[in-house]
Amino acid sequence: MANFIETKRGTWTNSLTASSLLQLVDHVDIARFAAAAFQDPATYHGRKLGVVSEELRVQDAMDRLAEEIGDGRSIKAIFMTDEEVAHEQDKGSWLFFSEPCVRYMSNYTDMEEPERLVPGLTTFKKFLVREKEAVMKTYLSSQ
User: Per its UniProt record, what InterPro entries does this chain match (predicted)?
Assistant: First the structure.
């Protein structure tokens, strides 16, 4: 979730599709999972777990971010085609070697399991409200 606080552009170019579910995780939730694993090692030992706080369609995430910024702007998701991704890979762009797998990541995560193990995971909206100062500093500062 914090990755979106690090850009000021009005677009987010990505290798997902308009129907892909973007799996978002709050860094605080990562810490909560780690603490839970230390407190109850038997539950977590040998387990493969998708640590996800919320799944959203990409444009929905961009809309929530723009809404929280609150100055009337929009942030548009730009979806790269397979050919565009392949072209970037051919050029050696490190960003696009692993990102295409994110298109299908939601197919491998049971979204009910993380919430069962660590109840009260952070939604993107709650994250943006909690991190309001960083959002404002990133998007509304004059620098």
Answer: NAD(P)-bd_dom_sf
DSSP state for residue 104 in the 8-state scheme: T
Which residue in 3, 2, 131 sits closest to 68, CA to CA? 131
Give the model confidence (pLDDT) of 6-37 as tens digits. 566 788 888 888 999 999 999 999 999 999 99
Instruction: With a cut of 50, list the residues of the chain below it in pLDDT.
Output: 143
Q: Residue 11: in which H helix or E strand, if any? A: strand 11-14
What's the CATH code of the domain at 90? 3.40.50.720
The residue assigned the tokens 């706080």 is: 53
Distances (CA, A) of 14 to 11, 53, 100: 10, 20, 9
pLDDT of residue 91: 85
Task: Look up the domain containing 126 and give its range.
Answer: 2-140
CA atoms within 13 A on the CB side of 78: 8
